Amino acid sequence: MNDFLRYDQPDPRGHFGQFGGIYVAETLMPALDELRIEYEKAINDADFMAEFRYELKHYVGRPSPIYHAKRWSEEIGGAQIYLKREDLNHTGAHKVNNTIGQALLARRMGKKRVIAETGAGQHGVASATVAARYGLECVVYMGAEDVARQSPNVFRMKLLGAQVVAVSSGSKTLKDAMNEAMRDWVTNVDSTYYIIGTCAGPHPYPMLVRDFQCVIGEECKTQMIDLIGRQPDAVVACVGGGSNAIGIFHPYIDVPGVRLIGVEAGGDGLETGRHAAPLTANAKPGVLHGNRTYLMQDPDGQIIETHSISAGLDYPGVGPEHSYLKDIERAEYVAATDAEALAAFHDLCRYEGIIPALESSHALAHASKLAATLPSDQIILVNLSGRGDKDIPTIARMEGIQL
Amino acid sequence: MSRIQKVFSQLASQQRQALIPFITAGDPRPGLTVALMHALVAGGADILELGVPFSDPMADGPVIQRASERALAHKVSLRQVLAMVAEFRQRDADTPVVLMGYANPVEAMGYEAFAVAAKAAGVDGVLTVDLPPEEAEECSGVLRAHGLDQIFLLAPTTPESRLKAAARLASGYVYYVSLKGVTGSANLDIDSVASKLAMLKQHLSLPIGVGFGIRDADSARRVAQVADAVVIGSRLVQEVEAGEEGLAERLTAFLASVRAAMDTARA
User: Fold this and answer.
1) Which end of chain A is more exposed for a tag (fewer CB within 10 A), N or C?
2) Average pLDDT, integer, range A194-220
3) CATH dotted code for A24-56+95-209
């Protein structure tokens, strides 16, 4: 049995067990060294951390509340579901916690230009937002398919002054946007800071994105005590790259008795092969985007095109720390299909008056399944990582409604 | 002495520099690759770099990205690439072949299985773009045990402090990326290449090839004045992209013009 009380990852070179690391072309290695050194200085600098906390409180609106979804829990008839309301953050998702941290780092490092990749557009919006806030030039790479299915967010980014570049290579989704952002970074490495949006990529990104997102779980630990006098029995979060999940899981790793459950995008169903669930489908480890992790690939090592109703989960890999948490059996990973996520989306709208993001709806879908199997004194805490306004055109299209 | 060492020592004794063309295996279709490899040798190639197609070529510009996509449309796998090298070897026992690509296809095959198969096929060296020295220890040991050279990239951003690790693991030659950017970029600055190479040579005894941004006979000649080898990729892949008609002849003729210019480099 692993000793989770002494969990201390990654190692100094960014390895979470066999996962993580720094797999990039030579040109970027020195920039990653510089980032690692600057990050270590920053988090030990009281002024930097005070500014980060100030921004989270006054600009983002933290702490985000925890809300007891009582009507929905009653309807399900099992465990009580509580929601960590990251959807109430400024910009409507958890992504902004990380982009503030990284924009402050960029400013500290003297970079005037930031780039970002985005899937659903939430990280792109959060990056464009902080770029405007701190006066940085911002370019966001987004798969051409995602540009089409997330048009409200594309317009938001433009309003915020960012340039949005539609990427038409490969599968035209998140992984291709990340490839293109890497190409930009290698070309403009002196002037440019790359704000990676999830807990993946080369070290130190998986670590620093996690650290900036951990505010979610840290708040929960206090809020749950205030609300019900104890910690939840299970914490449930959706996992694409997995930044909202690692942010709520990580502070609970050393808390005994709290199940951590990551919910991947099951797409049309794991049996169809059309999904984005590398952990649940037992994909092999591989190397992509700077780190080793479980990766959806064919037997020749080519990356497989993924499928999900949710652009933010439509990614063939997963943050390396999730791969590690799976291996050491501290977290469990399951999948919810498009249809299950859509049903949970509607449930939350109707029973609680909250329109959740399609990404978060995957976590809700699994939470409702799990709740139904548990007694009513059990507590499930779901990270409601984003709001669903951006998904309204997608939902309307799927249901044949003309807006 | 390895085939790569032999090439560099012969050229050095003639005061000449190596010409290293790159094409992507399986582009425009698998049946053509071996013939194109021979055509490159006929044009004066000293070493061949053969690209292993990958679905996510992060370090490549649009030209080589498209080459990968064309090859992958034919489902060209790493094993097939090795079969192409084996076929090439039936008629050419001397020209070294270096595989250039990304880590994951090699990871998927497994280092040991890959090294055994590559050696058997007649591969001489391996360049894995996204496997820097820090992560290459294990792979390096396996390749060395099978007599394969591991070629590493060095870049304009590489500080002196990082050269030690590369020098310890590298063999065959090192590949200096002439600019900050992806393959096929067009802002080659010979003066900065020359000054960086002078620094590299203080730490490395291996020959140094220079690539990225070399597009014609003139830029090849100027690079040959400061480097031990000239790598040309995107420009040749553009030739492949222009169509199959007369392709082998066009590749031979283009390389021959580059070769001729390089041979005047230090005259």
Assistant:
1) N
2) 98
3) 3.40.50.1100
Residue spans in chain A of domains classed CATH 3.40.50.1100:
24-56+95-209, 61-92+210-398
Q: Is the dihedral of CA B143, B145, B149, B152 positive or negative?
A: positive
B244 is catalytic: no
Reported pTM: 0.96
Say how many Å lie between the first and final Cα of chain A, rounded: 54
The residue extents of the domains of chain B are 3-262
> Which CATH homologous superfamily contains domain B3-262?
Aldolase class I (3.20.20.70)
For residue B23, what are the β-bridge partners?
A: B50
Residue A333 corresponds to which tokens in the numbers above?
């990973």
Cross-strand partners of A194? A115
Which of B60, B124, B149, B228 is catalytic? The answer is: B60
- Binary contact (B134, A300; C-beta < 8 A): no
Q: Which residues in chain B land under pLDDT 70?
A: 267
A15 touches chain B (CB under 8 A): no
Sort out which chain B residues have CB atoms less than 8 A from A302's CB and list them: 54-55, 72, 104-105
- How far does the CA of residue A145 sit from the closest CA of chain B (Å)? 17
ipTM of the complex: 0.95
DSSP track, A319-361: -HHHHHHHHTTSEEEEEEEHHHHHHHHHHHHHHHS--B-HHHH
Architecture, CATH, for domain A61-92+210-398: 3-Layer(aba) Sandwich (3.40)
- DSSP, res A65: P
Q: Is A95 a catalytic residue?
A: yes
Reported as half-sphere exposure (CB side, CA atoms, 13 A), residue B96 has a value of 25
Q: Which of A288, A300, A303 to mutate to test the interface with B (most CBs of B within 10 A)?
A: A300
- pLDDT tens digit sequence for A357-389: 999 999 999 999 999 999 999 999 999 999 999
Residue B118 to chain A, least CA–CA distance (Å): 15
Contact B104 A30 (CB under 8 A): no
